[in-house]
Structure formats: C-alpha cells, structure tokens
Amino acid sequence: xxxxxxxxxxxxxxxxxxxxxKVDSFEGAARVLTFADLPLGKNILRALADIGYVNPTPVxxxxxxxxxxxxxxxVQSQTGTGKTAAFAIPTIELLEPGARKVQAxxxxxxxxxxxxxxxxxxxxxxxxxxxxxxxxxGTGFQEQYDALETAQIVCATPGRLLDxxxxxxxxxxDLRIFILDEAxxxxxxxxxxxxxxxxxxxPTARQSLLFSATVTE
Length: 217
Ligand code: AMP
What we know:
This protein is of the alpha/beta class and 217 residues long. It has helices at residues 3-6, 42-51, 58-68, 83-94, 111-124, 142-148, 158-166, 183-188, 192-200; strands spanning 12-14, 73-76, 104-107, 132-135, 153-156, 177-180, 207-212.
C-alpha cells in the first residue's frame, strides 16, 4: 500500500475514557516517521520489517500509542487505510506471550474479514508466541475447538462465537482487549442481539476499540 495516498484518508479517533476530552486528530502522528519511532518490541519490529511495513499509516500512527496507553477508542476509518494493523500491532504488544487464555477478541461482520484479520495478526505476531484462532459459521466445529485450546487471540463472527460460548468451548473471563471491526456493517447486517449477548459475557475491566467506516452518535 502507498502510505502517501493513505494520508488523504482522514481518520478520526475518539477516546471516550481519555480524560483530556475528545481526540479528533493526533498531533503526535505527524512526528512518527517509522515504526521504530513507536514504543514497540523488537519481535514486532522484526515482523513489520519482514512484511514490508516501514512507515505507519495515519490511522496506525494515531492509534498505536493510544492503544498502548490502555485507552478505549472509537475510530472512524475506511478499509484500505491500514486499520487492521492499527489495532493488531498494539494488541500483540500488550498481550502476554505464552499465557494459555483468550486475551483479545476481534468481532467482524463476515467470515472473509475474520480470516483476513487473523492473517494480519499471524503475520505481525510471527516472532511471538501468541496463537490466533478464527471462528465463523457454516463450517464444522472440530477445527475451531482445537484452535481454541491454545488461542490467545480470537477473530470471530458473532453467531458462531456465541454458539461456542454457550457450548462452553471457550470463555472470555480473561479477556483484556475487545475489538469491534466494521461496527457499522455489523449493525447493518442485524447482529445487534448477538453483539449484546457477547458483550454481556465480557469482563467489565477491559479495553474496548471500535472501528467503523461511519460513526454516528
Ligand atoms: P486495511 O485497511 O487493514 O484493510 O489494510 C489495507 C492494506 O494496507 C493491506 O493490504 C495491508 O497489508 C496494507 N498495509 C497496512 N499497513 C501498512 C503499512 N504501514 N505500510 C504499508 N502497507 C500497509
């Protein structure tokens, strides 16, 4: 991706629990030249170099420091801006490698997006021990059960995730980071009831990140 063209796409970042108030643009973003300027561990920097990501896109430069600081965010950003890595990079940095429990959950409206997001987590986490499971409907359960035995990051569509939770195949009791990707699309597709049922099962002490192409009050 050409990061120059990404600067044309304005990403609005709001941080509901940021005591300084609403953040519409992040001035620090302009000063971040490369990923090495961000407070990231060497294993992640090595993976980013392997992938060929050198300069953060604007949404990445804005979000990574805020997510690392533990802040909840509502981010308005389109597909193609690098939004997946904007949440995947700091999430991997924050998780504890080797802990055998689900620490991060990403909900997506479609199975294709769930697979894409899981792929990005796997590439960025290639040099850390943080297993990823992808969970979606319309296919057998066994492979997903097996992946959930060691998963620390779960990328899921809402229906199958809820099904697995009800069957006791996984728990979200140790969740630290909850990410809602393409939230507007999720609501357009009628997933509101499933979303509510999933959110009810999340620990209240967690970090929440919401990404959406459109953001309404
Ligand atoms: P997304 O908006 O997450 O769908 O990402 C769009 C595309 O941009 C994907 O093909 C990513 O691999 C690519 N991409 C994400 N971040 C960067 C970056 N910092 N530098 C170059 N390409 C990137």
